[in-house]
């Protein structure tokens, strides 16, 4: 009998044990939850990612929360389907929440469509539900919101309108001037006819509302790809914030309006938020000190 062959199963068994016990015992948890809206009389799905250590210990540790909004035509599953965003929950020990904002809601409470109350839903109802059902640190200092494209606009709009709720905000390839998106199918349903309601379009454009960041004390990060069709409006917003003396991070990187760009950008934004949380007194990962 070949001794080497006889002992091979034993060596395989020990190799299995070494690999099993050296691999991480925990990983981030992804949950799909249904969050009701009293404002819109229905419920919407949302993706929640919990860091690996959420389930460890005695279950009393609380975590900061980063809300991440999808773009036009998207839904609550976009970020987890197209990126590895879940790993960021583990890396920075934060809860990530990706709510559903409708296909073309622009995350506003529309005066033209009484059934579209997405700013109230995301900015108030979702936040309250998450704080009730998960172990969050329910303060503005440990709560951030960001998003891509339409979601970038929505994140900044919601943060400006709810400064007591969000202490940090970001925009990735943000449509910070919706007047550049008049041809977007369905946008006039929530913003109204641009010819008849130009004042509403202008009043809600982030580039025209930059001065409200001056006293908001929001940790702010904005980025856009150099080949993105929204890059000029993002530059305009950046220049206005500089002129106003508003502290903010601004970056342009190679890339366009694509998931390749967004999946890279979100890594920088969540790091920015985790650092802001730490500066506000959250005792998270030591390497953020």
Descriptive notes:
With 289 residues, the chain is of the alpha/beta class. It has a single domain (27-288), classed as 3-Layer(aba) Sandwich (Rossmann fold). 37% of the residues lie in helices and 17% in strands. The protein has nine helices and eight strands. The chain has helices spanning 3-22, 78-82, 86-92, 118-133, 150-161, 187-191, 198-204, 231-244, 259-279; strands at 29-37, 42-50, 65-69, 95-99, 143-147, 168-172, 219-225, 249-253. It has an eight-stranded mixed beta sheet with strand order 1-2-4-3-5-6-7-8, with helices on both faces. Helix 8 links the parallel strand 7 and strand 8. This is S-formylglutathione hydrolase FrmB.
- Indicate the radius of gyration in whole angstroms: 22 Å
The biggest beta sheet, please?
A: 8 strands, mixed
CATH class: Alpha Beta
CATH topology: the name is: Rossmann fold
Overall outline: globular
Helix proportion of residues, in percent? Answer: 25-40%
How far apart the termini lie comes to 61 Å
**What is the succession of H and E elements?**
HEEEHHEHEHEHHEHEH
Strand order of the largest sheet: 1-2-4-3-5-6-7-8
CATH architecture: 3-Layer(aba) Sandwich
Number of structurally distinct domains:
1
Q: What structural class do the secondary elements suggest?
A: alpha/beta
The total count of helices amounts to 9
Average pLDDT level: 91
């Amino acid at each position: 009998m070949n001794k080497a062959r006889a002992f091979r199963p034993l060596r395989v068994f020990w190799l299995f044990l070494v690999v099993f016990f050296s691999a991480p015992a925990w990983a981030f948890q992804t949950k799909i939850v249904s969050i009701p809206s009293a404002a819109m009389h229905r419920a919407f799905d949302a993706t929640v990612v919990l860091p690996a250590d959420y389930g460890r210990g005695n279950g009393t540790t609380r975590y900061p929360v980063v809300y991440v909004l999808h773009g036009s035509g998207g839904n609550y599953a976009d970020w987890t389907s197209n990126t590895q965003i879940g790993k960021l929950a583990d890396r920075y020990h934060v809860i990530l929440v990706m709510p559903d904002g409708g296909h073309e809601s622009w995350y506003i409470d529309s005066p033209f469509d009484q059934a579209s109350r997405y700013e109230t839903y995301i900015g108030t109802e979702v936040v309250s539900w998450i704080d009730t059902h998960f172990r969050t640190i329910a303060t503005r200092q440990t709560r951030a919101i960001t998003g891509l494209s339409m979601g970038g606009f929505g994140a900044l709009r919601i943060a400006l309108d709810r400064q007591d709720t969000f202490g940090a905000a970001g925009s990735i390839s943000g449509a910070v001037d919706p007047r550049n998106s008049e041809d977007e199918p369905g946008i006039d349903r929530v913003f109204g006819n641009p010819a008849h309601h130009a004042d509403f379009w202008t009043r809600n454009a982030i580039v025209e509302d930059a001065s409200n960041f001056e006293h908001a004390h929001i940790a702010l990060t904005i980025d856009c790809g150099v080949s993105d069709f929204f890059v000029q409006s993002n530059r305009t917003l950046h220049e206005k914030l500089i002129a106003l003396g508003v502290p903010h991070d601004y970056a342009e990187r190679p890339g366009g309006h694509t998931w390749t760009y967004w999946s890279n950008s979100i890594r920088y934004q969540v790091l920015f938020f985790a650092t802001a949380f730490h500066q506000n007194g959250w005792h998270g990962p030591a390497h953020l000190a």
